[in-house]
Amino acid sequence: MDRAKPGLSAGRLPLRVLVCKVGLDGHDRGIKVVARILRDAGMEVIYAGLRQSPASIAATSAQEDVDVVGVSMHNGAHLTLAPAVVQALRDAGLDTPVVVGGIVPEVDRPRLFGAGVAAVLGPGASNEEVVETVRAAAGTGGGA
Amino acid sequence: MGERSVWEKAAGAAPDRGRPAETMSGLPLDGVYGPDGGEFPGQWPYTRGPYASMYRSRLWTMRQFAGFGTAADTNQRFRELLRSGGDGLSTAFDMPTLMGRDSDDPLALGEVGRAGVAVDTLADMQTLFDGIDLGTVSTSMTINSPAPILLAMYIGVADGTGVDRSRLGGTLQNDILKEYQAQKEFIFPPRPSMRLVTDVIRFATAELPRWHPVSISGYHIREAGSTAAQELAFTLANGFAYVEAARTAGLDVDAFGPRLSFFFNAHIDFFEEIAKYRAARRIWARWMRDRYAASDPRSLQLRFHTQTAGVSLTAQQPEVNLARVAIEALAAVLGGTQSLHTDSYDEALALPTEKAARLALRTQQVIAEETGVVHVADPLGGSWFIEDLTDRLEAEAEAVFARLEEMGAGSMLNGVIAGIEDGWFQAEIADAAFAFQAKVNSGQWVMVGVNGYRDEDDSELPTLYIDPGVEKAQLDSLGEVKSNRDAAAVEAALARVSREAAQSEVNLMPALIDAVHAYATVGEIVSSLEAVFGTWTEPSRA
């Protein structure tokens, strides 16, 4: 999956990542920690906060020209919402990779990948895994 | 300070469960240990417990939280719980209900009946409690922003089945302040939300003598990442804010004080948790007496529910969570909890399966029946370590109170709201969560199975599967209710809600009860309130 943008191929610009909560669930401990980890790793993090919809995520992604979208879900709605986020981005003409974080049972992961989700980060991921997963999703192999 | 003779009299007069108070070897045990002039449970300042005889008279309530799918699904689970000797019901609502959204709201997509039961109208509430006598059962409802509406529906079910309101027993979480700080299930801005909380307190004080109108909750603050000291301080500060709001509304502190209850987390740091509960009781008693002039002893006695820490559970080697939960539950019992929910070992993965939920309840039963910790009140009281930790947590909390009072120019209510509005609480909690993650990441803190003692062949557990047909079934029944109700009556009832929302001196509960009787939906009522109150968006920062 090569989604690196031309401007990033030189590996100099920091990655831009949009992170947010999608749906009604407000458990934001994880996403806030992830935002800081990515920022500490040198990425530009746009924290869109709570209650984002697939449409609002697509709009913000376009406006902010982000390289990766990270959505956090602890509400059991990932099978509905994560594919909807991917679809909204594609409908807006964006090929931005989507990383899902939160409580996602192993058995559901193949369906998320099938729907175009680039990666899933579960509880217990180390800071390094978080950073590597986002970099890999962006296809820059350590560009940040 | 304390008097043994007073304690002996109180303990002697209290009921006895009739279990022999002795060790396994047959050594007899006193109800409490300590010097004559020391502190005793059931006596000022209540550090050692709200009651003289504690678990010798009555065990804590084993109250397991449940809810999923449609109201009919959860009704089946409730009846099963009551048949198997459960003490009370504890209702988990789904995210749309918690956020005041109907099941057919576009934002509810994918979340209907997922993490709790879906309730849109009085019809769902009637199904949820079908065949259950609301005059005898005790029901806890975990709901906050739309709490007055769900309470109105519960009253609506009672009205419809001929149960007098004075017989309704239970607890409404109705703790909006911690939503802004931690769990983030807010709808309206803080001030109108506080008015709703106060309306419920005032209504319950007048009409629901067996009801607990607010459960002041530290649980979610801790889950969001706070330290134990922050959980203690923020929760009690919120409690003071509710007391100030109710007093400002003209209520006498001893009229509602005895009905306030608390809800704390039981995390894995065993001794610190026990000290936290002890400090909480002492601080509450002192502030209620000295600051708010309460004189009824029941207003001074902090009583609390506890839940073991969801965040301490690991998705890796999930069976190990059984050990964590047992240790956390034991801390809650040694700390003198009145009620306890033990988490299931599979909850880092999904909602619990029936087997996992049964093991969680069995864990409490082992503590109650086999360990012998129930014979002696506050068994760790007098330990130099526990007493010192209790004092230090109390001092940490007092420092936070001083800061909040400064932020509120002498008012805890204003201080807490200022702390929410400028994101102070949220930032404090996020900082603590990040600091903990840094400790785990560096290996300073070892979590078994996560950053130490890992197994490569992590076995896969079966998890609870929620039928996607639930959403469709709920949408169908909502559609049916909407097409069968009197549209003009709904419109009139909603207009009254908006009208009275604009009159801050009017208690909104009667208008809400009227609206639910007309089968107005949760979402419609919330919209009518939003039209007057507006909505709240937190300052976005991470």
Written description of the protein model:
The complex is a heterodimer of chains A (144) and B (542). Chain A is built from five helices and five strands, in the order βαβαβαβαβα. Chain A is of the alpha/beta class. Chain A has a single domain (15-138), classed as 3-Layer(aba) Sandwich (Rossmann fold), CATH 3.40.50.280. A five-stranded parallel sheet of chain A has the order 2-1-3-4-5, sandwiched between helices. In chain A, strand 1, helix 1 (29-40) and strand 2 form a beta-alpha-beta unit. In chain A, helix 2 (54-64) crosses helix 3. The radius of gyration of chain A is 14 Å and the shape is globular. Mean pLDDT of chain A is 89; it is low at 1-10. Chain B has 542 residues and is of the alpha/beta class. Chain B has a domain at 54-413: TIM Barrel (Alpha-Beta Barrel). Chain B has a five-stranded parallel sheet. A four-stranded parallel sheet of chain B has the order 2-3-4-5. In chain B, helix 5 links the parallel strand 3 and strand 4 (169-172). Chain B starts with a helix and ends in a 9-residue tail after the last helix. The model of chain B has no long low-confidence stretch (mean pLDDT 95). Chain A binds chain B through residues 19, 23-29, 31-33, 35-37, 45, 47-51, 53, 75-77, 79-81, 84, 103, 105-107, 122-124, 126-127, and chain B through 95-96, 98-99, 101, 106-111, 114-115, 179, 183-185, 223-225, 311, 314-316, 348-351, 429-430, 433-434, 437, 441, 447, 449-451, 460, 463, 466, 537-538, 540-542.
Key words describing this protein structure:
heterodimer, A: 144 residues, alpha/beta, Rossmann fold, five-stranded parallel sheet, 5 helices, 38% helix, B: 542 residues, TIM Barrel, four-stranded parallel sheet, globular
